[in-house]
Amino acid sequence: MLPLQSYKKRKVKLRTPDFLTDGDSIGIVSTARKVTDKEINPCEYILESWGLKVVKGEHLFSTDNQYAGTDAQRTQDLQRMIDDPAIKAILCARGGYGTTRILDKLDFAN
Prior knowledge:
By secondary structure, this protein is α/β, with parallel strands linked by helices. It has helices spanning 4-9, 37-49, 71-83, 97-100; strands at residues 25-29, 53-56, 87-92.
């Protein structure tokens, strides 16, 4: 994985993602504060009613103090979603300070 400074020097070509369509997979992770299944259920219900397949991060419901798992677990969840070509969109159930703790650990090269 490259340090954050290396990414700043690279020319990154931004791409506009395709619109979501029936049957597409959408990932849900929590990059910061912990979240419960009860809080996710309404979102999951709506997304599935739109014909989307919901893929939850492995550590979505983990707990490490106020966070949804350790920094390493949250990084792993988000990185897996970024790297999975079947995941067409990623939703962060919660964000905040915990997100800034993991951003420099992510590999956006793909």
